[in-house]
Amino acid sequence: MSFCIHIIAGARPNFMKIAPLWHALSKEPWCTTKIIHTGQHYDASMSGSFFQDLNLPTPHHALNVGSGSHTEQTANIMMAYEEVCHDNRPDLVIVVGDVNSTIATALVAKKLGFCLAHLEAGLRSGDRTMPEEINRLATDAISDILWTPSADANENLLNEGVDKSKIDFVGNIMIDSFELQREAIEKHPLHELQFPRKSYATVTLHRPSNVDTIKPLTRIVDCLLEVADHIPLAFPIHPRTEKCLLKHGLMEKLSHKNIQTLPPLPYRAFMSLVNSSRLVITDSGGIQEETSYLGIPCLTLRENTERPITISQGTNKLVSIDGLLKQVRSSLAADSANKAPQIELWDGKTAERITEALKVRFLA
After folding, report:
1. Which ranges of 238-321 would DSSP assign to H, the alpha helix?
2. Which of 72, 92, 242, 249 has the greatest CB tally within 10 Å of its CB?
């Protein structure tokens, strides 16, 4: 019987990370690879359109867990995934990133005795108040195979006492996703955008610490209005952020001639928007990597990052809300030509390395 692999996806960043791996493993005759979609992001703009853009098949199993508190969502994913595993036992479970779907399905896999691999292992922010940091630590602690995106991730795991035989330094899978779609991204029309290419900043916000409560969200909105006097802003609004803006009566404040709000965008459209930006303002994780790869200045509205290599070797800077305008001015005053850093194994071949590493582990 063919070796059975489950690849878990639940939130939008997961979809981009599983796509290159799915395409690589689906060509292998020795394994059968199935996509398990937990439904953590469950609307078309956050899920279905990404599968279409990334040429992914309809998920083999859809758990449809929907939203809820961290505890509710994690518990519901665990119960639903356990049922799938009873009917379709995998030889290997691959989890990606640091969302609730990651830790929930990882726990089920290990409690049922399956081999577990974590893609994007070893990332650390050092901030245990972030749910994502807890998910990263717990998932890495129980995984049998740890696929790391950067040298600092290897060091983090070794410093935590992880046996080096579990660690495979494979590179950054997000770059594979971009390279798979590069031609389509570069050709994607931005008909809805009011601003010329390289004349604007892209803004993305969704972190609870930034958007869930009125005080920081109001400060951010006021700061964006100041920034918009210096550079136009294209702002695709995450559903969580939109809900909070409406709740606190802040959406109308964004009515500025130099601010264009947009709905959540599919992968190609979003990456086309980023690729055409002069700079990016974000609190996301993955965008720190993509902007570094593309040589686009990135200002991250967070106190810390689990991707410090994007600061030491990339184009990323951590900024406070109060310091954002100053950093925007500094970025605009700098040379606008893209100077893309060369970070080790960020080359679009991570899925190939993972496939070969699996052959060594399971077929040798």
Report:
1. 239-247, 267-275, 286-294, 309-312
2. 92
Both structure tokens of 302: 């967070």
Which residue among the candidates 37, 61, 188, 206 is catalytic per the annotation? Answer: 206
Q: How does residue 338 score in pLDDT terms, banded at 50, 70 and 90?
A: low
Domain ranges of the chain: 3-171+346-362, 183-333
Q: Is 61 a catalytic residue?
A: no
Residue 42 CB-half CA count within 13 A: 12
Average of pLDDT values for 118-124?
Answer: 98
pLDDT at position 343 over 60: yes
351 vs 87 pLDDT, higher one: 351
Q: In this predicted model, what pLDDT tens digit does every residue of 181-217 receive, in sequence order?
A: 999 999 998 878 999 999 999 999 999 999 999 999 9
The letter for the amino acid at 50 is F
Q: How far, in Å, CA of 168 to CA of 145, rounded?
A: 7
CATH class assigned to 183-333 = alpha beta
The class level of CATH for 3-171+346-362 reads alpha beta
Q: Is the dihedral of CA 100, 280, 47, 213 positive or negative?
A: positive
Q: In this structure, what are the phi and psi dihedrals at residue 194, rounded to the nearest 5 degrees?
A: -85, -15
